[in-house]
Amino acid sequence: TEQGDSQVPDGMVASGGRYIDPNAPMVALTFDDGPYAPVGNRIMDCAEQYGGRVTFYVVGNRVNSYKSEIQRMYANGHEIGNHTQDHKYLQKLGAQEIRQQVEACNQAVAAITGEAPKTVRLPGGGKNSTVLANISQPIALWDVDTLDWKTRNAQYTIDTVLRQVQDGDIILMHDLYEQSVIAAETLIPELTRRGYQLVTVSEMAELRGGMAAGQSYGHFR
Ligand code: ZN
Fold first, then answer.
1. How far apart, in whole angstroms, are the C-alpha atoms of residue 54 and residue 37?
2. Are 215 and 141 in contact (CB under 8 A)?
3. Cα–Cα distance, 199 to 47 (Å, whole number)
4. CA of 51 relative to ligand 1 center, distance in Å
């Protein structure tokens, strides 16, 4: 037994600066299209208050405008995912452009944190065989689509999540709109109260069978 293992409570897994119970319910809240510090920092404030971690699928061409938000995500155990360099619909592009869009975002994040994103989220969820063949990271999609970007209505987002949520879900929201963070500030305590641990996509994948390159996932059960 390595020194330090005795610190971890029985049956728990240490990750992201807190403990996860692998046998208890969990969901991954994900926030696309940022970074955008006025929203992202509030999401992190709330998640951290409840011992949760979330995943941000960032657009590469935005990350240098919000370096300290990116650094905070990384330092505090949130996940930074790849949402392409320019939010291009990859199913409309050729192989070389697909690779460039993904690689440029990987490099933009790694230039700040030292580590490239582990997973990719396709803008609009758009995929075809060329997309799948040209992305070497696993693809994280979602099971619960809040449509927060469309309704800009916090109560609709809250109701959508609480009506549909199941253990293992990946939930799609956006790191851009005030109504999304208002929804998150209700959802994070309420999901926690209902017994869901708030974990990152990669944490949930790791605890539930892993991910493979070129495969896409909407949940981990
Ligand atoms: Zn997007």
1. 15
2. no
3. 10
4. 26
